Amino acid sequence: MNSEHTAMTKIVFGSCMHVVDNATQSVWNEAAAHNPDWLILGGDNIYMNYGPAWFGPRRWSPHEFAAKMLERYTAQFSVPSFRALIEPIPIGQVIGVWDDHDFGWNNCYGTSIKDQMPAKSLIAHAMFHHYFAALNVRPLPASLPSLSLAGLPHLIDSTKEAYRALDLGPLRVLLCDGRSYREENQSNPAGASLLGTQQESWLLTEIANASKPVLIVSGSTMTSDGGDQSWDHFADFFKLKFLPATKSKVVMLLGGDVHENRLPTPPNDFPVEIISSGAAIGKCFRKRNFGVLEVSSADATIRLFKKGVVQYSGHLDLASGAFALT
């Protein structure tokens, strides 16, 4: 771990873990070599649908959905390289969010009433909290603790929100839930909800009140050509509320989803967008993508790795908000 006199906090982050097609996940050995103080998992922490089971999560009963989700979390928890990365990290410092594949299925909407989504959303919440609680036990349990599936979908923690705020060194971290309240509104895409009324108010209030630089963590990208999977698709929220709220603040958004690394130079008055996705997915995508964020009270250094080599790097002055690719 970093010594106190450096006043530096080191964060490793990544997303997309597909244990069925990538059981060894050597990327975590590379990540562990950086001796992180914190680990941020950026969504698609398991894959509920893959290969022949692509349509499975939609068709499964709530009980089968829960059993399959627990099976996948259990398998990911048991990956030796993943466990070796997590074990030295202090309790409470393995944190994360979810995206579509660990919430339900590809490009799913939490507000949908199709495919028994209301019940499956409750199950996903319970499993998410169970998994992250276990990741913060030291020593790590030999396997993911059992979880009774009785009384579905009203498992313990099934109504506990997946979004929250915390302080991480010199940063205020906002872990967002971009799935539970996401709406599909084909007649008015710009007016559809991404975060829901309550979470949106929470996010904007946190940004307004932040006395530190802000790190927003989302399973989705902020901007992309990915249609309704990015924040900017929800234009009324993004353009009229989110961007004005972040304009006078130093803000980074950490996302995943797209199976690649991205560190673009932000347009004027946009947060710095940091994307790392495709850490440990299937046979066709062995990119071993992950990122390292080193922050002090003065600045942040960003490095995005692909197959063990730095692909992108950048520097952010936390006082002025000046960003430059390096």
Mind explaining what this structure looks like?
The chain is built from 8 helices and 13 strands. By secondary structure, it is of the alpha/beta class. It has helices at residues 27-32, 56-59, 62-77, 80-86, 100-103, 117-135, 197-209, 235-246, and strands at 9-14, 38-42, 94-97, 164-168, 171-175, 214-217, 251-255, 261-262, 272-276, 290-295, 299-306, 309-317, 323-325.
Mean pLDDT: 94
Structural class: alpha/beta
Form type: globular
User: How much beta, percentage-wise?
Assistant: 15-25%
Model regions low in confidence, pLDDT < 50 over at least 5 residues:
1-5
Number of helices: 8
Rg (C-alpha, Å)? 19 Å
**Order of adjacent strands in the largest pleated sheet:** 3-2-1-10-11-12-13
Roughly how many Å apart are the termini?
A: 25 Å
Helix content: 10-25%
Number of strands: 13
